[in-house]
From TrEMBL:
Gene3D superfamilies with a match to the protein in the record: 3.30.70.120
InterPro entries linked to this entry: N-reg_PII-like_a/b, N-reg_PII/ATP_PRibTrfase_C, UPF0166
Protein name according to UniProt: Uncharacterized protein
SUPFAM superfamilies documented for this protein: GlnB-like
One Pfam family recorded for the sequence: DUF190
Phylogenetic lineage: Bacteria, Pseudomonadati, Pseudomonadota, Alphaproteobacteria, Sphingomonadales
Similarity remark: Belongs to the UPF0166 family.
Species whose genome carries this gene: Sphingobium lactosutens DS20
Amino acid sequence: MIMEIPKEAVLLRVFIGEDDRDGNRPLYEAIVLKARELHLAGATVLRGAMGFGHSSRLHTAKILRLSEDLPLIIEIVDSEEKINAFLPTLDGLMTSGLVTLEKVKVLQYGPPAKS
Protein backbone atom coordinates (compact mmCIF):
# COMPACT_ATOMS: atom_id res chain seq x y z
CA MET A 1 0.00 0.00 0.00
CA ILE A 2 1.52 3.34 -1.07
CA MET A 3 0.90 6.13 1.41
CA GLU A 4 0.31 9.64 0.16
CA ILE A 5 0.74 12.75 2.27
CA PRO A 6 -0.74 16.02 1.06
CA LYS A 7 1.62 18.98 0.65
CA GLU A 8 -0.15 20.64 3.60
CA ALA A 9 -0.06 18.22 6.54
CA VAL A 10 0.02 18.06 10.33
CA LEU A 11 2.91 17.12 12.60
CA LEU A 12 1.84 15.30 15.75
CA ARG A 13 4.45 15.31 18.52
CA VAL A 14 4.08 13.20 21.63
CA PHE A 15 6.41 13.92 24.56
CA ILE A 16 6.67 11.05 27.04
CA GLY A 17 9.22 9.37 29.27
CA GLU A 18 11.15 6.24 28.45
CA ASP A 19 9.62 4.48 31.48
CA ASP A 20 6.00 5.17 30.44
CA ARG A 21 4.15 1.93 29.75
CA ASP A 22 1.05 0.55 28.09
CA GLY A 23 0.56 -2.62 30.11
CA ASN A 24 3.74 -4.68 29.75
CA ARG A 25 5.25 -2.85 26.79
CA PRO A 26 6.82 0.58 26.39
CA LEU A 27 4.29 3.31 25.59
CA TYR A 28 6.33 4.55 22.62
CA GLU A 29 6.13 1.07 21.09
CA ALA A 30 2.36 0.90 21.60
CA ILE A 31 1.90 4.31 19.94
CA VAL A 32 4.08 3.51 16.92
CA LEU A 33 2.50 0.10 16.38
CA LYS A 34 -1.01 1.58 16.62
CA ALA A 35 -0.08 4.33 14.14
CA ARG A 36 1.20 1.65 11.75
CA GLU A 37 -1.93 -0.47 12.24
CA LEU A 38 -4.07 2.56 11.35
CA HIS A 39 -1.98 3.19 8.20
CA LEU A 40 -0.55 6.54 9.20
CA ALA A 41 2.30 7.57 6.91
CA GLY A 42 5.08 6.94 9.43
CA ALA A 43 6.33 7.50 12.95
CA THR A 44 9.75 8.20 14.44
CA VAL A 45 10.83 7.93 18.08
CA LEU A 46 13.56 10.34 19.19
CA ARG A 47 15.41 9.84 22.47
CA GLY A 48 16.49 12.97 24.34
CA ALA A 49 19.72 13.29 26.32
CA MET A 50 18.15 15.62 28.87
CA GLY A 51 14.81 17.16 29.70
CA PHE A 52 12.16 17.91 32.27
CA GLY A 53 8.42 18.14 32.23
CA HIS A 54 5.43 18.77 34.45
CA SER A 55 7.13 17.41 37.59
CA SER A 56 10.23 19.60 36.98
CA ARG A 57 12.31 16.49 37.74
CA LEU A 58 15.44 16.54 35.58
CA HIS A 59 15.99 13.46 33.40
CA THR A 60 19.51 13.07 32.08
CA ALA A 61 21.91 10.57 30.54
CA LYS A 62 25.08 11.74 32.32
CA ILE A 63 28.03 9.32 32.25
CA LEU A 64 28.08 8.71 36.01
CA ARG A 65 24.36 7.90 36.15
CA LEU A 66 22.36 5.21 34.50
CA SER A 67 19.74 6.67 32.20
CA GLU A 68 16.68 7.55 34.23
CA ASP A 69 13.42 7.81 32.34
CA LEU A 70 14.93 9.79 29.47
CA PRO A 71 12.59 11.98 27.43
CA LEU A 72 11.17 10.57 24.20
CA ILE A 73 9.45 12.38 21.35
CA ILE A 74 7.29 10.51 18.87
CA GLU A 75 6.73 12.38 15.62
CA ILE A 76 4.01 11.48 13.13
CA VAL A 77 3.22 13.46 9.97
CA ASP A 78 0.07 12.85 7.96
CA SER A 79 -3.05 14.61 6.73
CA GLU A 80 -4.98 16.64 9.26
CA GLU A 81 -7.92 14.25 8.85
CA LYS A 82 -5.85 11.13 9.62
CA ILE A 83 -4.03 12.76 12.56
CA ASN A 84 -7.34 13.98 14.05
CA ALA A 85 -8.79 10.47 13.68
CA PHE A 86 -5.75 9.07 15.56
CA LEU A 87 -6.06 11.45 18.55
CA PRO A 88 -8.80 9.48 20.43
CA THR A 89 -6.67 6.33 20.13
CA LEU A 90 -3.64 8.22 21.44
CA ASP A 91 -5.72 9.60 24.31
CA GLY A 92 -6.69 6.04 25.27
CA LEU A 93 -3.02 4.96 25.41
CA MET A 94 -1.61 7.90 27.38
CA THR A 95 -1.99 8.69 31.06
CA SER A 96 0.48 11.60 31.08
CA GLY A 97 2.72 13.48 28.69
CA LEU A 98 2.39 16.34 26.24
CA VAL A 99 0.83 16.24 22.77
CA THR A 100 1.29 19.04 20.25
CA LEU A 101 0.04 19.61 16.71
CA GLU A 102 1.39 21.96 14.09
CA LYS A 103 0.74 22.51 10.42
CA VAL A 104 3.67 21.61 8.20
CA LYS A 105 4.49 21.74 4.51
CA VAL A 106 5.69 18.39 3.12
CA LEU A 107 8.41 18.87 0.52
CA GLN A 108 9.09 15.20 -0.24
CA TYR A 109 7.85 11.83 0.96
CA GLY A 110 9.33 8.62 -0.35
CA PRO A 111 11.60 8.30 -3.37
CA PRO A 112 12.01 11.29 -5.70
CA ALA A 113 9.64 11.41 -8.67
CA LYS A 114 11.04 9.97 -11.92
CA SER A 115 11.68 12.51 -14.67
